[in-house]
Every structure is written in structure tokens, then in C-alpha cells.
Amino acid sequence: MADIIAKSEETTMDIAENPETIVDAKESKEDIKEEEKVEEGDEMEEESEEAKMIEKKIDTNAALNVNVFAISTVDIGKCMIMAGLPSSLYDDDDEIFNDCIISMLEEDFTVKKDSIASITRLERGEDEENGCRVMVSFKTRVHKHRVMAVKNRSNVGYTLEQVESVPNEVTDLLKEIKKEEEKETHDDKELIKKKEEEKKEEKFKDEHSTLPFIIDWDGAPEFQWKIPEGKGGATLVIENADTLDLYEPFLYRASLKAQFVSVKMPGRVIEDQPTARHYGTISLQYLNDGEAIRYAMVNLIYFRSKGDRRIKVYLPQTTVALKRKSEFEKRLGRKIEYPEAMRKIMVKSGDLSLAECTFGVEEAKGLFPDSDIEGVERVTDSHDKVGFVITFKCARETVIAHATTRHVKVGEITCRTYMMGSECNGSERAGREYLTRLEVIAQNKEDQIKKKKEYDEKVANGEIIPPPKKTFPKKAVGGAVTARKARGVAPIATTKSIPINKTNGPSFKQPSSGVRGARATGYTPRTSPRGVPPMPTSSPLRGRLSRPRRDDEMGGRGGGGG
User: Fold this and answer.
1) CATH of 207-266+278-335, one of 3.40.50.1820, 3.30.200.210, 3.30.70.330, 3.10.310.20
2) What's the mean per-residue pLDDT of the chain?
3) Burial of 119 (0-12, 13-18, 19+ CB in 10 A)
4) Could you read off the pLDDT of 382-395 as tens digits, one per residue?
5) Whole-angstrom Cα distance, residue 399 to residue 293?
6) Which residues are bridge partners to 417 per DSSP?
């Protein structure tokens, strides 16, 4: 027992943080008491949460033949070294090696398998036949001291040693584990970042991103961030714009997506410069700032003006818009050809009898006589309604035809013209083929109602437990709202208000006619200030103080005096 107490000063070291620093610590008195109980034969076991160690699996080291189980934080007060084991154990695999060490401890010291935290092979000793060395780490110090207390009594063919410092091979091994963990963490972060970028690209994907492009800055617009004023966070302001810019396909498409379009152009030419052109401002107001930055990205970046003129676009400098700043800057300077959807107009009506009508190229030329039409296609939308898609030769003719012709007649049916890609979807939208914007909104509402109905049915059948409803304080009878108090604050105590006497003095009984003063009624007027008790009647100073006169109430100045 004295040997154990003499060796009770041990070292605890955190390999994960600093493998080279060793901190000395003394064993607590509780551990010594537990050792005494072990000598008496008491099998008391105690395990604390702080004593638990994290086990991690590692690859086998070929040079040291290290066990596959190691710990990231080592408390050498719970470790011991078994030396003098047969060197042939190095040739066994890890599973057989572990079973041999555990069997030895169970037979020689009655150690349970669950009390061992890790088994680590160390470097070969000097003895060639019995040079195997093993470091055994227990889950608590109690298990370790139980073995060390009876090592001298047992006759075994190996020795047990205290661990004065962590072996170098264990330190190097745990350093490698830490590097591998950091590498895996770094790889995981890169993988997560890559997935987030892919999701972002899928979320903001547009048909122009896959088209071939060139970098051309001639006539490209100039973009500038600007803090919006008031509620102008969803507005794109285009300066140095011409009236003809409204019919440019990309700007026209952006204007169709806007809720409001404001145009401010000069009404006349200045007299001293009759040949000068004066440009104005176009404002496109969208539903929110996210839509504003999106349509500026997929439309206005590809806008090109002729000559030396450049339009200047002010982007809303908001939190939502700035999230796409890097993506926006990557597309600057790109120039693409007009997409095929910009050369198509759809003629559609809610009348189902349109399916019986005949509509071809000749009929389309009759509706748009000044345009060059390439073909007409009969299509059916996802609601089984028939429409006709007219393809023009160029995008500018399509824009002019759509801007000047809102309604056309196919036979006896009045139809509406829709710009493909802006006011009407194409065939690439699954479940939304050739639907107009209003039809898509109605379809979304129907889907929401359908989902709500399915959810209510599942709740009624008990498949889903709905969240608890929020409760609010009810109104009291008569319409008065009950007073709400803060949580944890006692209610305010209400007391009846004391009525205030507004008279000049206390009430008194009116004396009989002809009698004056206090001697007749026993009333003494108040002469002391408020808050000061009045003097007693027997005071010698009472007659010397002034007192109020009540001649108007006593019927004049006559009467006996006091």
C-alpha cells in the first residue's frame, strides 16, 4: 500500500492539443480510499462522466504493429505498461492480439473486458524472445490501481509498470490521427460548399446560362449599385435611355415582367441644338428586390445600344440583391444571340371551340401583315386547351407585333397574344406546358388547396399530429379587454380611490339665526396650515390667532362675539 501511495503522483496529458506538454497531478484521496477497499476484498466500482474517453479507430501501423484502437485524450494515471510478453504476439493480427491481452488480465487479475478502454502495442524491447510491450488504458483509475495493488502477489511471466510519460509512438500516432481528422473536416467543408453552389445554380438557373456567348463591351450597359429611397428597393432605374429602347427584345422582356413601367422622356428639342438627341429615364418596378436583380441579370446584361451611347442601370443595393453580386459580376460583358422563344408569340383563348378552328401561316400573315412569319404550330397546354404558336423571322419583329397587337380574331373567336418566355411558358416546363402567367397562378392556388385538403385528411385519420394552436387572451364581457401582464410579474393591486373634499373647510352644522362664533355650536374653525395638527382649544394662543369670518353665512355682522 505504501508503494502505491508513493507513486500516486502521475501525469495527465491531452495529446490532441499539445502532445509534448506533461502536467503533473496528484491522485485524489478518494482513489486511495478505494484502493484500501480493494485490498480488503470489496469490489466497489465507480465511474464518472469526466473519466470517459473517446475511442477512435485507426489503421494498423506496419512498423510498430499498433493496435487499431486508440484514444485522442490520454490520462496516464489510468494507463499501465505490460512488458516481457512473448515477441511472437507481434505476428498476430489485432483481433487475436486483443483477445490474448484481455485473457491474460482476466485470468491473472480478474479484470473485466468492459473496464479496458484501449490496448496499444509499443516498440519491441531489448529481449528478443520476450520483447513485446503493451500499453493498457483503463476506463477509471480504480481498475488500474486494482491490478497494480495485487501485481506483487501474483506470479505471472510478465511485469507491470507505471506510465511516467506518454510513449513517443503513441504521440506520433495520435498526431497522424489529428491530421487525418482535419483533412476529412476540410474535405467535408469543401463538399458542402460545392453542394451549396450547385443548389444555388439550380435555384437561379435560366435558359440563357447554357447558350454560347462572347465577351463584347461595345454598347454594353453600365451598372451601378444604389441605395433605394423609401419603398424603391424593387425598382430598376435606367438612365440615358431612348424611346426606341422600349422595343429592344431584352429590355422589352424585362418590362413585361415588371408590375409598373414609368417612362420620362423629353417632349421637344432645344432650340439652340435642333439636331441633338435627348434621352430620358425608364423605371421598372417589380414585386420584390429579388425579382429586380434576377431580371436585370437575365435580360439587361445582354442589352446593347448602338453608337457611343450606353444606358446606365441602377441596381437596388439591398441585402437580397447583394447575395447575387458575385454571380452578377461574372456575367458582365456577355453577349448572346436572341433565344428562340423571343421569336414566338402564342395565340390563345379560354374558348374551347378554338380547337375546331383552322389556323396556318396564311391566317397568321393576315393578322400581322407587316411581319415576316416563318411558321405556325398547333399546341396543347397541360389543361388540354388548344393554342397556336407563331414563329417570326427576327426578335424585333416579334416585339413590335406583340406591342401593337394585343387581341386577334381566329375565325369568330377573339384571342389574346402572349409573348413566349415572358407571358407564357414553353414545353420545357413539366406540368406547366404552354400556360399563361395567370393560369400558372391559378394552378398554384389549386395545388395549395389540394395539399391542404390532403393534410386535413391525414390529421383526421390520425396519421399526422398537428402542432398546438396558439391561444390569445379572450375579451371580457362588455367588450373590455383583459389587462395583460408580463410573465413572472405579479398583477397590480387595485384600491378604491379616496374621495377628495373640495370644500374650503370641514363641514359643520349651520348655527341658529343670531348666534355667531364657536361657543354656540362647539365648532372651532381650522386656522393651522394643511398637514399641521390644529392647536388644542385650551391653548392660550388660540384667541390671538386670526380666524376666518363667516359673516355671509351668519346673516350679517351682528350677533354676539366669542
Assistant:
1) 3.30.70.330
2) 73
3) buried
4) 888 889 999 999 99
5) 23
6) 347
